[in-house]
Amino acid sequence: xxxxxxxxxxxxxxxxxxxxxxxxxxxxxxxxxxxxxxxxxxxxxxxxxxxxxxxxxxxxxxxxxxxxxxxxxxxxxxxxxxxxxxxxxxxxxxxxxxxxxxxxxxxxxxxxxxxxxxxxxxxxxxxxxxxxxxxxxxxxxxxxxxxxxxxxxxxxxxxxxxxxxxxxxxxxxxxxxxxxxx
Length: 182
Description:
Largest sheet: 4 strands, parallel
Shape: globular
Number of strands: 4
Strand order of the largest sheet: 3-2-1-4
CATH architecture: 3-Layer(aba) Sandwich
Helix content: 40-55%
Distance between the termini: 42 Å
CATH topology: Rossmann fold
């Protein structure tokens, strides 16, 4: 596993949703990286929320000319089965699942590395997410491009509102939706 530092390097950008992608894409393009989006979010529930986020990203990607790899499917049953024994530890599972998927795709398809728009959210467990991405990179022999996009969060959300992108009110899983209302 190496460090990705070159402008023009091919980076696979795991995207959790269109609003979170706006500032991440701009920042990485500004550094000269060649990006491909990557959608794999089996944690997002319910089905209509999953579709709303996927469709918003599809429209935004088309508008800016970003290629997106659509990987995986809606995964309510598998996600719930996987976290049922440790609901409080679900974020680790969620991060591990998505970072492994992105790292594996990046390695198999010879990208120079991968990263995720999850790194823009001040609501994510940044150290746990970083450890998950590093572990996945090592597992698949690829590079993880670390960027702390959190300073760009408000700017990105403002731009997403201006673009009228669908913006969700919770992280994604059914348990985070429950927490939203408590």
